[in-house]
Design goal:
15% strand, globular, four-stranded mixed beta sheet
C-alpha cells in the first residue's frame, strides 16, 4: 500500500493514465492525493474529474483556483475566460453530481499519520496548522450552504492582500481563498503579491516565495502544494514540496510517494 501525491493535472487525463501506469497504481490498495486544479486548459477535464471522483475513498483532493472557477461558472456567477476548457463538464449529464462532489472537497488536508499537509497554493505566514484548519473550514462551510451563490460572485479579486484576524465579511473569505489557492510570492510582511508568476524582475527584490517568509508559523509542516509550475518542482526548502511541474504547458506530470518521498514523472509533450 502506497500513497502518491500528484501535482496539477488541469485536464491532462492521458498524462495521468501514463503516470499511474508508471507507478503501478493499484486502485484496491493504493491512495492518490491531488493538489487541486484537476481541470481546465487541458483537453480532458471531464474525464479527469470523473476518474478521480470514482476512486472513492482511495483519493483525496484539495480545491484549486481552477476548481473554484468551475464551481462559479456552474452557479452562473462567471461567464468564463477565453482559454477555459470547461464546457464539456458543464454540458455533461452528470454535471450536477460532479459539481456537488467538488462542493464538498476541502481547501486543506492534513494527515497526522503520514505527516503531511496538502494545499493548492500557499499559507499565510501567521497561520499555524490549527489556524489554517479553522480558516479552511470557514470557506468549506460556505461552499456547502446557501451563501455559496454570493461567495462565487465575491470570490474574484486581489484584495485584501494581507491577512488580519479582524477581517470580516467577503474581504475575509476572499483573503483566505487567495492564500490557499493563488499564493506564490509575498512581501516580507507576508502580504500577497498576486501578479508575478515566474521570475522576479530586478525591481522586485523585495518579493519572497511564501514558503521562505522568515518566522513562518507553519514552517514545521511538511507541505505538499501545486499551482506554481514555474518552480519546476524545486523549492530549495526541505519540507516544502512543489508538485506542479507544468503538465498542461507541455512539461511533465509528477507524483511523489509519501512513504519515501520518491518522485515519478511522465512527459506531457
Amino acid at each position: 500500500m502506497s500513497t502518491y501525491a500528484i501535482g496539477d493535472i488541469q485536464g491532462c487525463f492521458f498524462a495521468l493514465e501514463k503516470l499511474l501506469e508508471k507507478i503501478h497504481f493499484d486502485a484496491e490498495k493504493d491512495f492518490l492525493w491531488f493538489t487541486g486544479d484537476l481541470i481546465n486548459r487541458g483537453p480532458q477535464s471531464l474525464e479527469t474529474l470523473r476518474f478521480i471522483k470514482n476512486l472513492g475513498k482511495h483519493q483525496q483532493i484539495v480545491l484549486g483556483n481552477h476548481d473554484l472557477h468551475l464551481l462559479a461558472m456552474a452557479h452562473d456567477a462567471h461567464d468564463g475566460w477565453p482559454d477555459d476548457t470547461l464546457a464539456p463538464i458543464l454540458k455533461a449529464g452528470d454535471c450536477e453530481e460532479l459539481i456537488d462532489w467538488l462542493l464538498h472537497q476541502p481547501l486543506l488536508h492534513h494527515d497526522e499519520t503520514l505527516g503531511y499537509t496538502m494545499i493548492h497554493a500557499g499559507l499565510a505566514p501567521s497561520w499555524d496548522l490549527t489556524r489554517a484548519k479553522k480558516l479552511a473550514a470557514e470557506v468549506e462551510a460556505i461552499l456547502q450552504s446557501h451563501q455559496r451563490m454570493d461567495f462565487f460572485h465575491e470570490m474574484y479579486g486581489n484584495t485584501p492582500t494581507h491577512w488580519r484576524d479582524d477581517l470580516t465579511g467577503w474581504d475575509r473569505i476572499r483573503c483566505i481563498v487567495n492564500y490557499f489557492t493563488r499564493a506564490r510570492f509575498c512581501h516580507p510582511d507576508g502580504s500577497l503579491e498576486l501578479k508575478t508568476k515566474e521570475n522576479i524582475r530586478q525591481d522586485q527584490t523585495n518579493l519572497i516565495p511564501w514558503f521562505n517568509i522568515p518566522g513562518r508559523q507553519n514552517a514545521d509542516l511538511n507541505i505538499l502544494f501545486g499551482h506554481w509550475a514555474a518552480l519546476g518542482g524545486v523549492t530549495h526548502t526541505s519540507n516544502a514540496f512543489a508538485l506542479d511541474t507544468g503538465c498542461v504547458w507541455g512539461y511533465c506530470l509528477t507524483a511523489m510517494r509519501l512513504e519515501d518521498q520518491k518522485c515519478f514523472n511522465v512527459s506531457c509533450k
